[in-house]
Amino acid sequence: MADAGPPNQVRRLVLHGTRGVVSRCRDFTAQALADWGWIPADGEEARERVEDVLLLVSEVVTNACLHAGGPEELVLRNGEGRLRVEVSDASPEHPRARTPRSPALPGGHGLLVLDRLAGAWGSRDKGPGAVGKVVWLEVGRPPARRTGAPE
């Protein structure tokens, strides 16, 4: 059974008016993952999962920059065997698939990346009296390192 880690760990990064927001969010996420025991990730599958998380963070933050006037906050929630990433912005427009593009052309593939790499994803309104939305995604925790396994 995989170790779920301590429940309900939360980190928040406020992003109003910041520069280099995508790299800042990736660095913030990498530090949280390291603190929560996702890094160093032992084994190929675990390392790939961490890289997937960083790519997913890049995608949702970039989409907020390109389509929603920029992200306002990044929230990471670790617990119950998964990581939940939430990016809020001031746009009421929810993500929607565009006309399919050739995979050979750059750009326009962010939602496809979410579909393929995230265990689940979606968006919701911020709540009563607030303008904007939260785009969220969830990724399962990498498998726990096995000790004493035969070689």
Automatic annotation (TrEMBL):
GO terms for molecular function: ATP binding. Residues 46-137 form the Histidine kinase/HSP90-like ATPase domain. CDD domains: HATPase_RsbW-like. Keywords: ATP-binding, Kinase, Nucleotide-binding, Serine/threonine-protein kinase, Transferase. The keyword Kinase applies. Pfam families: HATPase_c_2. PANTHER family: ANTI-SIGMA-F FACTOR RSBW (PTHR35526:SF3), ANTI-SIGMA-F FACTOR RSBW-RELATED (PTHR35526). This is ATP-binding protein. It comes from Streptomyces tanashiensis.
